[in-house]
């Protein structure tokens, strides 16, 4: 039950982070865009931690139930593999969002520095 709850928390956090990323993409102000991106990165990081804890706790509790059962062979279902795939893609999303954030900040800083030099010469 704890793993299922953590997976649902991860899903809700990921939906919220995707919404914040969409708000950041639609914003024209670089400061607002950066704020939305940072919120999205932190929320996605918490979601990634939640799914990783769920994926680690599940086999631990599964092994405890093996000792109580009378079956000799137990296997994980396909959903466990999908969970690891989701964790990998979520990690990639966090990394790509960090890379995109840095690129836009650098572009904005370069643009303002060039603009400031042109104004000071005039």
From TrEMBL:
The chain crosses the membrane at residues 41-61, 73-98. GO terms for biological process: cell-cell adhesion. Residues 1-17 form the signal peptide. GO terms for cellular component: cell-cell junction; membrane. It comes from Halocaridina rubra (Hawaiian red shrimp). Belongs to the TMEM47 family. Keywords: Cell junction, Membrane, Signal, Transmembrane, Transmembrane helix. It is found in: Cell junction; Membrane. It is a multi-pass membrane protein. It comes from the Eukaryota. Its main location: other. This is Transmembrane protein.
């Amino acid at each position: 039950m704890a793993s299922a709850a953590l997976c649902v928390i991860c899903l809700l956090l990921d939906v919220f982070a995707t919404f914040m990323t969409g708000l950041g993409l639609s914003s024209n102000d670089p400061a607002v865009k950066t704020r939305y991106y940072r919120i999205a990165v932190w929320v996605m990081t918490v979601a990634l931690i939640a799914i990783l804890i769920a994926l680690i706790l599940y086999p631990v509790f599964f092994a405890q139930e093996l000792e109580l059962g009378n079956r000799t062979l137990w296997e994980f279902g396909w959903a466990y593999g999908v969970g690891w795939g989701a964790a990998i893609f979520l990690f990639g999303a966090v990394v790509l969002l960090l890379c995109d954030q840095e690129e836009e900040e650098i572009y904005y800083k370069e643009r303002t520095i060039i603009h400031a030099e042109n104004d000071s010469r005039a």
